[in-house]
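Q: How would the structure tokens look for this protein?
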Amino acid sequence: MRMRTILVVFLLLLVPGLSGAGAATLTAGPGSPVGPDPYWRYDGNGGTDALRYNIQVSYDFGSRTLRGRTVVTMRAKQDLTSFTLDLLLPVSAVKVDGRTARFAKPLNHELKVVPPATIASGDIFRVDVTYAGKPDAYTYGGERNWLADRNEVVAMNQPHMAPWWFPSNDHPTDKAVFDVRVSVPRAKRVVSNGSLVSRTVSGTRATTHWRTVDPMATYLAFFAAGGYDVASGRTGKGIPYYYAVSQQLSSGDRTRAMRQLRQSGPVTDWLQGWLGKYPFTSTGGLVTGLDVGFALENQTRPTYGAWIYPSVVVHELAHQWFGDSVAVNRWKDIWINEGFATFSEVAYAAAHGGPSVASWLNGAYQDRCHESGSSFWTLDLTAPGAANIFDEAVYDRGAMVLAALQNRIGATALRDLLRTWVAQHHDGNASVAQFEALAASETGEDLDGFFDAWLRDGTVPSGAGNGLLHACS
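A: Here is the predicted structure in token form.
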């Protein structure tokens, strides 16, 4: 995610009782609504592993009502007499392996399902949920995330979006593959992740089917529906792309936005040369006409506001490696998403006529080194807290960490380190601690002091004193 620079970065609000100390375990017991993350304890659930989501939704723009039927294929991680999914909308029916199941909503965000018979550990089963409601009526974790008007809807947000439109184990550690079918009036187009499979018209409505074959975190799944100008083809390296720009924008803004989106292909190709093979089957992007103050790295197809600009395209496409393919292990690890994507902006600019990485770092350091005691330096990037995962320090100081590391080990060694990182954790999850360990292992250097100084000591790292930068002046 990259916030629009002219807006004030929003703070995540916590609902009392959802952010207790200490991580819950995934073996908390059958039916447990508690997931693995102490920042949002009700994200994800105990006892199940989602494998595939088959989502079918229809959306009514007049009433803003979403009706859905989602079949989730899951594996039991323990003997289950009940299990829980994350969903905000009211539910009318649930089946497990084709048999009617009892269900309840003990918490607004949780759907508890009691199958007709105990599910044995290791068994694969299918849960079929029918639901309907007005997504914009619901909040979770202090967030009201539904983005829509009478002409367009885009299901995009972070760290939470899925519970507003489909039932899931909503935590990045439980990735799955997706089929998404969306029914809307036939005059509108539907855009989602992955590859376009089909569009079927029936009367006044059309159903569009998109498929993602690479594992994806639930918050990265999205759909958009509205009037769009679209373009498709292949990048210079042969990667299929699909671009869409909202027709709610003026003609001039649509032209400018599409011109920016068309840079996604060359940027993806350059990133692939730097980081290794592009991790997915397609690329692209969508520019919405809705008023949104951030861009988001939806897997294969980032979403942007009308204010789209070149470096934000680099940022969101870099997230395809840093954040999407290699997802966080816990939300406290957000630096390995946002700091890495921001550094990618710096590296891309340096390779295309902009300041060198060392020059950028020196300038960034000189701009901020007088701010001792400010949150920019005191925030612990290894544990920023739920309210601070999108703090400026996570992005900009986060990028400075990698720039300083490049000054220390060299550009070739850093590139090799990043390529090893994304290869080792492809389609998986990783933590800050794992990156620190890999950096030390790959370079053969003792980097404990370096990472302490830049990530968590809470003071301004020395400049010339550690050979990384000029002294603060």
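The mean pLDDT is 93.

The first helix runs from residue 251 to 261.

Upvote if useful.
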